[in-house]
Amino acid sequence: MEVKNVAPPRLHVVFACLGVAFLLIFSWVLLHEGTTEWRSTQARFGRLQASVKNPHQLAQAASVGGLRQIWLPDLGRIDRCGTCHLGIDDPAFAAVPAPFATHPGTWLSTHPADRFGCTPCHDGQGGATDYTNAAHQPQPFVSRPMRPLETIEANCGACHRALDPPDAPRLAQGRRLIVEFGCFSCHEIPGFEGLTFRGPSLASIGYKVRSGWLAVWLHDPKAYLPQSKMGNFRLSTQEITSLQAFLLSQRAQPPLDSTGIDWKRADAANGRALFGELRCVSCHAVNGRGGTMGPELTKIGDKVQRDWLFSYLKDPHRVQPDTPMLQYRLTDEQLRDLTSFLFDEYGSAAAATEPPPVTYQDARLVAEGRAVFERRGCTSCHRLPGFKDTGRIGPSLAGIADRDPDELPYGSNIVRHTTDNYIFLKVLLPDTLGQPSSMPTFGFSPADAAQIALALASIRKADLPASYVVRRPAPAPYRPGGAFGELVDRYRCLSCHSVNGYGGDLSTVPFDRIGSQLRRDYVAKYLLNPGAVRVSVEARMPVFHMVPDEAKTIAEYFADVFVDDSLERYDARFTAVEVRRGQELYRRLGCQACHQLGTKGGYVGPELSTTGARLKPGWIAAWLSKPQTYRPDTLQPDYGLSPADARALTAYLSGSGADRTRGGNTP
Amino acid sequence: MTPRTLHTLAVAVLALAASAACRTGPASQPGDPMLDAIRAKERGGDLTYRESQGQHLFLRYCATCHGDEGRGDGQNASNLEPPPPDLTGPKSPQDVTYLTSVITQGSAAVGRSPLSPPWGRSLTHQQIEYLVVYCQSLGRKKPA
Question: Looking at the domain covering A169-195+394-468, what would its CATH class be?
Answer without folding.
Answer: mainly alpha
